[in-house]
Amino acid sequence: MSEALRTLLLLALGAGALTTVGLGAGWWMETGRRLRRALKQSLGGPADAEVMAVPQGRAAGMRFATGRVAVLWDKSAMGLVYDFVELEGAELIVDEAVVARVRRDEQRKQLDSIPKDAERVTLRLLFSDAQWPEFELDFWSPEIARTAAPGAAKEAVRFGRKWLSHVENVLKRTGGPLAMKPKSAQAAAPKRAPRERPPWEEDEDEAEAV
């Protein structure tokens, strides 16, 4: 009888350990945490400004110390890193209409009013990259609305306006139109094409191997 109890106890402990490991792995691989880790790795440190669209598996971030902008999609499996000099502007889109915009070669289009009941609020980042000229993610969408508090759509628009201010400040720091930048600045901005495995995961694998 005692042997049977001992066996049952070992089985229970084993099941508990597996459950704990499974919960820990699920927590570590949760989409929001994966995106934040990937942003930090690709920017060379914590982002000074970041936004994540967890239902889309997308994120964007800026780090002023390194002068980089990173965009991620497919839950961080794919991404690109740009130097500030490659950032051409940004648009805030509410229900498929561009309500505010900042660009290097244009005067800022100000947001006249903040909609209270928007169905979708999207940020579009624009880059001087022929292959990947733009990146979009949703601040607000029907998927987000299912679990959000009342009035959150209005806050999403405000957050989008704040991001346009971040982009505008970056454009001021890096000067006028990109065509006027010195060749050395353009050469310092190599394109980083999407990869099957993002570099931050490869770094983690190398560290584990050591």
Note the main attributes of this structure.
210 residues; alpha+beta; four-stranded antiparallel sheet; globular
Tally the helices: 6
- Residue-averaged pLDDT: 75
Q: Work out the count of structural domains.
A: 1
The description of the largest β-sheet is: 4 strands, antiparallel
* Radius of gyration of CA atoms, rounded to a whole number: 22 Å
Give the number of DSSP strands. Answer: 8
* Helix proportion: 25-40%
Please state roughly what percent of the residues sit in beta strands, choosing from under 5%, 5-15%, 15-25%, 25-35%, 35-45% or over 45%.
Answer: 15-25%
Oligomer: single chain
The parts where pLDDT drops under 50 for at least 5 residues are: 17-29, 177-210
Q: What string, H for helix and E for strand, traces the elements in order?
A: HHEEEEEEEEHHHH
> What class, by secondary structure content?
alpha+beta
- Roughly how many Å apart are the termini? 47 Å
**Shape call:** globular
